[in-house]
Amino acid sequence: MEGIKPVVIYNLGKRYGNKTVFRKLNLTLHTGTTAILAPSGYGKTTLLRLLLGLEKPDQGEIRGMEGHVCSAVFQEDRLCEDFSAAANIRLAAPKRTDEEIARALTEYGLPDGRIPVSAFSGGMKRRTALLRALLAPSDFIALDEPFDGLDETLKKQIIRRTKDACLGKTMVLITHDPWEAELMGASSIVRLQDCDEPDSDMVS
Amino acid sequence: MIPQALKKVRRFLPVLFWLAVWQVMSMVLKSEILLVSPLRVLISLFALVQTPVFWSSTGFSLIRIFGGFLSAALLGSLLAALAGRFSALRELLSPLMLTVRTVPVASFIILALIWFSSKNLSVLISFLMVLPIIYTSVLSGISRRNRQLLEMASVFRADRLHRFLMIDLPEIFPFFRSACKTAIGLSWKSGIAAEVIGMPRGSVGEHLQQAKVYLDTPALFAWTVVIVCASLICEHLVLRILDLGMQFLRRWKG
Question: What are the angstrom distances between the C-alpha of A64 and each of A6, B6, B39?
């Protein structure tokens, strides 16, 4: 197997209309967890969409994403509401056996029955979305506030399990909580503001 | 238990009220040609059901009208799926569908009579009425699919079949279902209108036309009841099959 190359974000620029999200963003993602901290509205989700190839940058480029198999927890849960947690996971991870999925569901405190996700609580939906991303075949995982809405008592346990499930993969964790980044064992914690060229218009 | 039964009875009260109004009006008018009484219609219907002609004519019209509906539902869905994928096709079909939807059904009937024989006229007319309804609804269902789920599926590289079953189908289904509900009633109305004008031998429309010629109002009403019932039964069956199919899918995919 060839060595895993880092993903390099080079001089990335992105605008929506006349709102500039990034001017010249530079960031390198190595194997392991990179936690990205930023206040809301700072383009965290845009960065994730660019990494996943859901948007094209206006300038600059992202190198080293080709060949990666991605999975993600989006800002929203994005579950097929009419179907069970197991069916949702199977959609993303068709090669997993029923036993594997059942075991994982139990570990995450989710029901392994024909209960549609629409009947789940917010926390249960979040855990389903997280589990889907972890069980899907991937070597690059993008997590957008994955632990949001989780029960505080469960959070620590879920974060630990997530950390174990991501060993050897490249992971981007977007969060506003440095504690989560630490618990996930992030090899680098990055403030998004520090990676972008300062906005000259805003400097007075 | 009792309130449930009461509710059912209450639902029929308005029906009974209007039947009574009808009965009273026919008694006041005292003319079977102008307005026949509901009781007389019932007797006429009862006599009708016992004749072989009733079954053959109903079967004749049913097969053609429902056949027109079914082929339009299939082709409409298929065209909508293709138009959802290829915008050039959508633009190409747009004026055609608009024309079919807005041209009066009578114009189509007469044109079809000039071009073809009247025997299978109701297939074509029912098909033409249903096609744009199904096409437009399914297409708008396709364009209103949840973008977030589609993105999710593409990130996870979900296979085409599962994408269709778990994302596309549940989102498009309500559009298709309500289109079918509207279209079935319309296919019967337009199909029978076509038969009345074209008078294919052995059709329900032919009997309506005869009722007109002989001023046989009881027969007209009786055949109308038959048409309404046939339309409602078709609607009920189609919706039931669709719902069962969807239920099966949910249970099957868990």
Answer: 6, 71, 82
